[in-house]
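Side project, low priority. Logging it here so it doesn't get lost.
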Amino acid sequence: MAVKWTGGHSSPILCLNASQEGLVASGAEGGYLMVWGEDGTPLGHTHFQGADDVTSVLFSPSCPTKLYASHGETISLLDVRSLKGSLDHFHVNEEEINCLSLNETENLLASADDSGAIKILDMENKKVSRSLKRHSNICSSVAFRPQRPQSLVSCGLDMQVMLWNLQKARPLWITNLQEDETEEMESPQSPGQLLNPALAHSVSVASCGNIFSCGAEDGKVRIFRVVGVKCEQELGFKGHALGVSQVCFLPESYMLLTGGNDGKIMLWDVSSEVEKKQKSPTKHTHRKKTKRAAYTKQGVNTHALVAGEEEHGKILPKLSIEHGEKVNWLLGTKIKGHQNILVADQTSCVSVYPLKAF
């Protein structure tokens, strides 16, 4: 059962982040932001003028008292010890921001918005250094790659996933998730499956910097590998009965958390797939086709969550939690030395699930 952190918000929580010192920040509808202690005690709160939804919160890894928050078209920089006023604020996006990402050297902050644009803010001179405009619909998620401070991935409701290098204004690589599924679509489908286009909601990059995941409205979880200036899809499996709203790699691992509109939270171990493909790249194409064919014959088995059969068997979740509410945000973080899953949903409380087995 989840432990519920209550007493902080009165509206649905949209985003979460944790500092390296154990503090947790949550942003909610209506402009409310909360900071919690690791035992779930509310430590402080603020309400942004204009009451725009707080859509993304982000602690500075090097300075854990600094917190970035996006609300409406604005990014505010706060000191968690005194939340009443902001240290700084930036208005560089033209439409509502959906996601923030800070690069490893912390000199660049990316903000993805409803226009499809990603603004890259140079934190040293406090100016926009790049404006990345290639998504033709809402850019829902953006993530800098660990160990590569000039490189990031993004996804959007245009069903596109992109790889960027900030030395160029255009993406190095683009894939359209819907077009990539054409060979699956030609096979018999379970009823209603075609009704969910592959709108991309969330990206997460593993700590190695080369493997990333994308969750989409078609219920599929896709794993990509960056190879030079392009990406290859390593794996694609049906993770949820409804849209996958959140994907999140646990730190220093290939354990992937996914959350869906079906109210489920899953933990997947993709390490064997990722490491096996590293050793035998020549078999990659053959394996991909085998997997797709198996998946379409299988249909959608939402109970067993069978993703497709290959030589080694089935892709099954290591953990499946019936959370019961649509997942708005997922976070894997250590609290008092133990790994936990923090969940934001349509309620006004944070749910905490211990991950004792991992």
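Brief comment: The helical segments are 177-180, 182-185, 271-279, 284-298.
Revisit when time allows.
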